[in-house]
Amino acid sequence: MTQSVGIVTPQKIAFETPITLSSGVTLPRYDLMVETYGELNAARSNAILICHALSGHHHVAGKHREDDKAPGWWDTMIGPGKPIDTNRFFVIGVNNLGGCHGSTGPSTINPDTGQPFGSTFPLVLVRDWVETQVRLADHFGIRQFAAVVGGSLGGMQALRWTITHPERVRHALVIASAPKLTAQNIAFNDVARQAILTDPDFHGGDYYQHGVVPRRGLRLARMLGHITYLSDDGMGEKFGRMLRSGEYKYGFDVEFEIESYLRYQGDKFSDYFDANTYLLMTKALDYFDPGRFYGGDLVAALREAHAKFLVVSFTSDWRFSPERSREIVKALLDAKRDVTYAEIESAHGHDAFLMEDPPYHNIMRAYLNRIAAEVNA
């Protein structure tokens, strides 16, 4: 029987040892906001790290208060009796460095100036996140994760873990992801960034001091992104060409239901997400390329891995299409690594990895049962 993890409390963990990022910039200290679910076993072998996607955060499952309208962003996947079963695993959700949900990022106060970091906060790469996550594992006394799991940008982090710290991850679950972005994906990200960068309220990234938010830019960025997360069939089935009033108004106000939906999503996003964090996260996506330091050879990069892999894609996902997941699978096979691949029929587009889809959840459950048997033997 499945149930919720219940009421959960985030914890902010301070790291006082300096970290030098890929850009060459050194942060003297930083905080990471995390949530944990389940219990760490005596051998500390049953830990699972959840890596979030572009707009994600540490609040993965459960609720902070009884009256919260919605649980954590992957509550369908994580909890007692769910595929990532918190009766068997100790699960860690983390808000990445540069985030806007409690971890050190552009919107947090720079102790040297007493003002938000803003435009001075350095760019971070996926490899930088992994290094902070390694220190997080050390904080909990975890020598090896039973699994590192992520969808989309989170899947890229799982891949990076297996290459940079192969001895510290037993399984990697790479869901709706890619070995690197296509030119089209980089283009989408740049258009979204331009919407923010050209907003008059952006002020070069230091809008905090002006008491404003580049809301228009954030709204447009989210609306564009949201279109790419859905499939044409999914949007057609949900909205079609439905008019809000049933007739044409011959103007530029909201008329179609899909327009209303996108504007709602944009407005909601601009209320809680930081524009500088959005810029950082999309740039980390653009820069991700594990084959870069191996002469462009993904196979050579993945020969570093010791982990076993589950790679999952969704048929209607055109932002991170199944072809991109199959590139990862082929590279793993060529590198003679253990990999299981599943391509799930779905009409939900890229967002399918967040949905409660029985075939998808059955595959996840079966694979995680295998992991549980290994680490709890």
From TrEMBL:
Catalytic activity: L-homoserine + succinyl-CoA = O-succinyl-L-homoserine + CoA
Localization terms from the record: Cytoplasm
Record bears the keyword Transmembrane helix: no
Active site: 152 (nucleophile), 317, 350
Source superkingdom: Bacteria
Family matches, as InterPro entries: AB_hydrolase_1 (IPR000073), AB_hydrolase_fold (IPR029058), HAT_MetX-like (IPR008220)
Gene Ontology, cellular component aspect: cytoplasm
Principal EC category: transferase
Cross-referenced Pfam families: Abhydrolase_1
Swiss-Prot/TrEMBL keywords: Acyltransferase, Amino-acid biosynthesis, Cytoplasm, Methionine biosynthesis, Transferase
Primary subcellular site in the record, as a coarse category: cytoplasm
Protein name stated in the entry: Homoserine O-succinyltransferase
Native source species: Andreprevotia lacus DSM 23236
Record lineage: Bacteria, Pseudomonadati, Pseudomonadota, Betaproteobacteria, Neisseriales
Designated gene of the protein: metXS
